[in-house]
Amino acid sequence: MNLESLRAYCLSLPNTTEMIQWGADLLFKIGGKMYAVAATEPGRVVLSFKATPEHFFEYQEREGIIPAPYMARNQWLALERWDALRDDELQELIAISYRLVLEKLPKRVQSELQAGTSQKPSQKTRTPRKAAKKTRVKATPKRRPRKTN
What does the CA dihedral 58, 35, 80, 6 come to, rounded to 10 degrees? Predict the structure, then answer.
């Protein structure tokens, strides 16, 4: 797998969005939360993604796979090279990452995504709140402290 085939696969997953962030990293998101990060420039890591606890410990035993820098505490794995995994294995792990992130989204966002009414976070409209009944509150006069002699 390479960056272009990864991009094509990720964009085939429902409601996936992509964006460039942190200079040259290509992020794939569902509901505004990232599930995969690919480097567009040469570096130590070519791809990072979320993993299940079992996969996190199992796959980092393989050569070319390490705990993801900055995200290992959240059980993210990182590939040091594209050929560290077979294409079908990588696609399965990306699908699992997608599902893990989707399941952690608020139920409201999940239902919006299923209904196809999802909006980007910057485009969300606020729902008007019920207007509170305005009541005037009398200001209490401030008392001056007594002088003691």
Answer: 110
User: pLDDT tens digit string along 38-66?
Assistant: 999 888 899 999 999 999 999 989 999 99
What is the CATH number assigned to the segment(s) 3-120? 3.90.1150.30
Q: Which residues pair with 117 in a beta bridge?
A: none
Please enumerate in sequence order all residues whose Cβ is within 8 A of that of 134, keeping only pairs 6 or more positions apart, or say none. Answer: none
For 138-149, write each residue's pLDDT tens digit: 666 667 777 776
Supply the pTM of this predicted model: 0.73
DSSP for 83-101, written as a single string = GGS-HHHHHHHHHHHHHHH
